[in-house]
Amino acid sequence: MSAVPASGWADWFSPTELVRFRRRHLVDRWIGRLVPIVFLVAIVPILDLIFWISQRALPTLTWTTLTTNPTGNAGGLYGPIVGTVDLLLLGLAIAVPLGIVSGLSSAIFLPFRWGEVVRGAGDLLVGLPSVILGYFGYFALVIYFGWGASLLAGGVTLGFFMFPYIARASDQAFSSVPPDLKDAALGAGARLRQYARRVAFPIALPQILSGIFLAAAIGIGETAPLLWTALFSSYPPTTLSQPTGYLTGLIWNYYDEPLTFGTEVTLAFQAAFLLIVIVVVMNVIVRLYAERSRKKLEGLYG
Amino acid sequence: MIDGSLPSDAASSGPPGLLEVEHLGVSAGSRKILDDVTLSLPDRTVSAVLGPSGCGKTTFIRCLNRMVELSPALKIVGSVRLLGRDLYDREVDPALVRRRIGMVFQRPTVFPQSIFENAAFGLRLVHADEDEVDRSVMDALKRAGLWDEVHDDLDRSALALSGGQQQRLCIARALAVKPRVLLLDEPTSSLDPHGTQRIEATVRHLKEEIAVVIVTHNVGQAARISDRVAFFHAGRVVEVGATPDILERPREALTEQFITGRFT
Ligand SMILES: Nc1ncnc2c1ncn2[C@@H]1O[C@H](COP(=O)(O)OP(=O)(O)O)[C@@H](O)[C@H]1O
Ligand SMILES: [Mg+2]
What we know:
Chain A is mostly helical. Chain A folds into two domains: 1-35; 63-301, MetI-like (MetI-like fold). Chain A has helices at 15-57, 63-67, 78-109, 112-127, 130-144, 151-175, 179-187, 192-220, 224-227, 247-254, 264-296; strands spanning 70-71, 74-75.
C-alpha cells in the first residue's frame, strides 16, 4: 500500500479545488514578476534625476565649494550650509521636546478619547501645506512678535513644521510598548510617570529617534516655511536675529539663472546634490540604527 | 492613618483573614462580571481561585490590589480589607496597595533590562540605597527559586531567559518589595511542565512567610499547591473551603461537574 494513490492527486482533491488552486498559483507567480517591474518604473525617474543633478554638480564640486560663501556669480555654499544646520538644530530644539510630550500625553497620560483628539490634531498639522505654516511664521513671528526675518523666526517655524512628525512617531512608539508591561509596572507599585520614564521611554526611544531623523530629513528639504521667516543670506549667521541662508533657499534663488551667466546655476545643482547626500546618509543611519535596536528588543514581542 | 499608608503587622488584631472581601461586585455597563463575592483569605496560606474560563477569576484578583481600576469601563462596589483597612478608602494610595499586595500575570512580563534591574524595579521606585537593593534582589531571587540559575550573571538581559525563568523573575520582582500578599493569575498557563513544576515548588515555599492567592482553571494544580479553594462560576463564589473538602467532597453540583471534567 503506497500513500500516494495511483492516479495522483486527483483522488485527494476535487476538480474545482484543483482548478482554483492552479489559478491562485498562476496569479501568485505573475504578481511576483510584476513587483520588480513596478519598482523599476518608480525608481528609474529618481535615478535619472540624481544622475542629472550629479552631472551638473560634480565636475566643479571641490572642498572650496564647501568652505566659501556664495559671492555674486562665484563662490561656494559655506554660509547656507551653516545656516541649514543652525535652522535645523534650532527647529529640533523646539520640535523634539514638544513632540515627545505630545506623544507621551496621547499614548500614555490622556484617556484614550483625548489621545485620539491629540492624534487627530497632529495629523491635521502634517497635512497642512508648509507654505501656510510659512505665512503663519511670517505674520506671527516676523511681524507680530517683531523678530524680523531671522534665524530665530526661521528656526521656530521649521520647529513647528517638524513637530507633528515627531509627535506622531512618539505616539506610535509609546503605543507599541506591550500593554502587559504597563500592568507589570503599575502592579509593582509604579506611578504612571514612573512607568513612562523607566519602562516605556527606553523601549520607545529607538522608534522616537528614527522619527526625529526622518522629521529632520523632511525639514531639511523644506523651503516654504523659511522663505519669509529666515529670508536669505550668503553669510553664516552670527546672531539669532540675522536673516539666514539655507541650501533649499539657495536652490530657490539660483536655479533659474541662465547657465552662461556664471556659477549660480551650478551652485544650485551642487546644493541639491549635497541635500540628496545628506538625506540619503540620514536614512541609512536610521535604518541601521532601527535594525540594531530591533535585535536588542528581540523576544519582547514574541 | 491620615497619610494614606497601610496598617503594619503590629496593628493586626482583628479579623482572621489577612484579606477580607465583602459584597464585592464588578460590572461593565449593565453586565455583572462579579456579583456579591464575600471571601476571607488567610495569612500564610495558598488560596486557589478555581473556575472555568471567563467566570471572573482575573477580575477578582485584580480587585485585590486595585489593578481593576486601570480598566475605566469597570464599576466596583463592596469592600476589600487588608488587616481591617479598606483598600478602596479615598485616603489609600493605590501604588502603596500594589507594593503590599504584589502581582504576577498570566504571561511573563519582564522588562527589556538586565535580570538584576528587573528584580530591582520596585526598589528603585523609592530610592532605596545600593546595598539594600543588592541584598533585597538576592533575597528575592532566592525566594523565587531563581538564584542558583542566574547568580553568576545578573547583568544578562532578562529576555534571554526561558519562559519559566522569566516568570520566576517576575515573582522575584514582586517579592523584592516585601509584600504581605502575592497574587498570581494563572502563572503557569504559558509554561511547559518543567516550568510549571518549578513555579509550583516556589509557591509552596512562599506560604511560609506570606499569603498567596493563585488563580487557576486547573484542578490538578489547585490540588497540588493550595490549602484552600474558592470555586467561582459566572461571577459568583459557588463554594469555598479546605482544598481536600472542595476537591474530594464538593457540596455543590456545579463544583462536582467542574472537578470531574464535565465542563471546563
Ligand atoms: N474591562 C472589561 N470590560 C468589559 N468586560 C470585561 C472586562 N474585563 C473582563 N470582562 C469580562 O468579564 C468576564 C470575566 O473575565 P475574567 O475575569 O478575565 O475571567 P477569567 O479570568 O475567569 O477567565 C469575561 O466575560 C470578560 O469578557
Ligand atoms: Mg483570566
